[in-house]
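S2.1 Query sequence (Glutamate--tRNA ligase)
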Amino acid sequence: MDKKVITRMPPSPTGLFHVGSVRTALYNYLYAKQNNGKFILRIEDTDKERSQKEFENNIVESFRWLNMPYKEFYRQSERTEIYKKYLKELIDKKLAYVSTEEPKEKGERGTVIRFNNPNKKIKFTDLVLGEIEFDTTDLKDFVIAKDFDTPLYHLAVVVDDIEMKVSHVIRGQDHISNTPRQILILEALGGQRPQYAHIPLILSPDKSKLSKRHGAMSALEYKEMGYLPEALLNFLALIGWNPGTDKEIFTLDELLKEFSLEKIQKSGGVFNVKKLNWINKEHMKMLSKKEIEKNILENLPEDYRNPKVIPVIIERISKWSDVGEIVRAGELDCFFKAPEIVKEKLAYKNTPLNKISYNLELAIKVLSDLEENNFTAENIKNALMLIADNLENRGMLLHPVRYALSGRDNSPDPFIIASILGKNETISRLQKVV
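Output structure tokens follow.
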């Protein structure tokens, strides 16, 4: 195409900006940016009763957090005079008319403005779905405005797309049924038809419509849960689009290079939280040491903010909010206070307790020989494995050491725990259980 690529994202401020809309916005943003085009954010707030400022703020803040800047910003509520001009044009040309009707409910207006349907077949080539044909006869003369000051969705959308010279309408497949009405209005106004690309819906694991239980939350709720914006975008990009390779981790810049409308699939993709967590963890690995430390420390209670525990935490989380869950589960307690020990739990399988005590005495001896400044996880491991490798089973030493230091059957490995506790505290805890 020789005309400039212009895409738009037209959310309605009647609810929070959820992940389905984020993916639609992402595809529009990527396509415009990779074609040196323009990406527009248009707030469709003609529904005065349901539109709320807090939802508009949520939309704008979501775009800021996701780092998807738009070139232009509009509110339909501020464009009433423009819609009025086009309405008058349609009525003057007898392509629309004021219809006096029996109000459906008490208190409703008795007149509306209806589009004069030419009752014809409409064909268009969808960039995702291919050839689509509609017979518009069934649509009858549909309503396009309540009055001159209150345009309805179909009219406002078409007028905006004409005025903003939108070249590509990229939206969910649930909008296909809107397309014939909008093409009829577009032709009546002499506008140039944009190219349509109806993208597949995001589905729950059971292939039903995505629900809150399966991840249909707003973008900023994912922010609150500690997901990285680039990871959320990476994850959403892959629901319905395939790069054609095994690569699954993409930065936004890499998506800009790889994305294409041709590789969008026709059928819906499943929202898989496990995959989102994996992708988020991979993006966390790309962060600088300083950034990781800052985020983990911010999510720790004040009395747990010891940088030494960061390597233990980063291995066990896939998003920042997991830090709080680890704390609540007591998984970090052993680093800040000596655990309560039940002696019987020191035993490994059927090993007698006197044998366990003997092994722990050997451990104390080899660890005592290490200098404080050499008390690293690697050196501790080397020292303890000299003993463990000579036993029937390594667990006869490593299990009681782990339990004596942490008070837990499941915990980070004993070498890491000991290195964080330091030489004196490690030996003190081992001595208490011998």
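The mean pLDDT is 95. Residues 98 and 113 are 4 Å apart (CA to CA).
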